[in-house]
Amino acid sequence: MASSLENLETQLEMFIENVRQMDIIVSDFQPQSQNVLNQKLQAMVHGLQEIDKLKTQVQDVHVPLEVFDYIDQGRNPQLYTKDCIEKALAKNEQVKGKIDAYRKFKANMLVELGKTFPNELSKYRALRGDEGRRGD
């Protein structure tokens, strides 16, 4: 799979370079450059055919749609992974904070329930099987 992706990447790079060169030729077109332009057009068609041949080798590759948004915005698609990891870390911290808050709430609630309803809390703990635990 890696060599298939490398082949596709190589073909795409060659195609992009060919298009860049064609842009230069067309933007400053001179009649004597017609043969070179024709060669570049043929190379472009050949490059598209090569890319089309490689599509069967990379059909199993799934690209998230957000990556295409990055490309459309002119951003490096390799930054997508970095941004996903940063978002996941931020969400992880947020969820961890909520879990910690709920644990503190539970501990405080058990302390207060123990003060107000000691017999009932003892029965509750006996039913749950955690009589020895007091803080959580």
From TrEMBL:
It comes from the Eukaryota. One of its GO terms (molecular function) is transcription coregulator activity. It is found in: Nucleus. GO terms for biological process: regulation of transcription by RNA polymerase II. Keywords: Activator, Nucleus, Transcription, Transcription regulation. InterPro entries: Mediator_Med10 (IPR019145). Pfam families: Med10 (PF09748). One of its GO terms (cellular component) is mediator complex. Belongs to the Mediator complex subunit 10 family. Component of the Mediator complex, a coactivator involved in the regulated transcription of nearly all RNA polymerase II-dependent genes. Mediator functions as a bridge to convey information from gene-specific regulatory proteins to the basal RNA polymerase II transcription machinery. Mediator is recruited to promoters by direct interactions with regulatory proteins and serves as a scaffold for the assembly of a functional preinitiation complex with RNA polymerase II and the general transcription factors. Component of the Mediator complex. This is Mediator of RNA polymerase II transcription subunit 10. It comes from Dendroctonus ponderosae (Mountain pine beetle). The gene is 109536149.
